[in-house]
Design brief:
This protein is about 55% helix and about 0% strand. The protein is mainly α.
Length: about 90
Amino acid sequence: MNDIETLSNNIAAGRLTNIFENVYHESVKNSPQREILLKFFAEESANEISSEPIYSLAKDMEISNPSQLIKQLTSPDNSMTTPDFNKNKE
């Protein structure tokens, strides 16, 4: 069996690790607030995202300090943070 067939079979059988799912779970950990904030940013379609409207939405959802949560999500200490979170969307 060639590599492509093996990969295809692994995907079909659900035996391929999804790195993005792991990054997501490690980033939000057990924080529903971090998860909500990350989803707000992910829903934006603009190349440059202004944080203030998103912070306002977060505060409406009773997330008291969204800027601190973003610092946690983008911190170099967070080993699962992807550098793309800090870049413009393509």
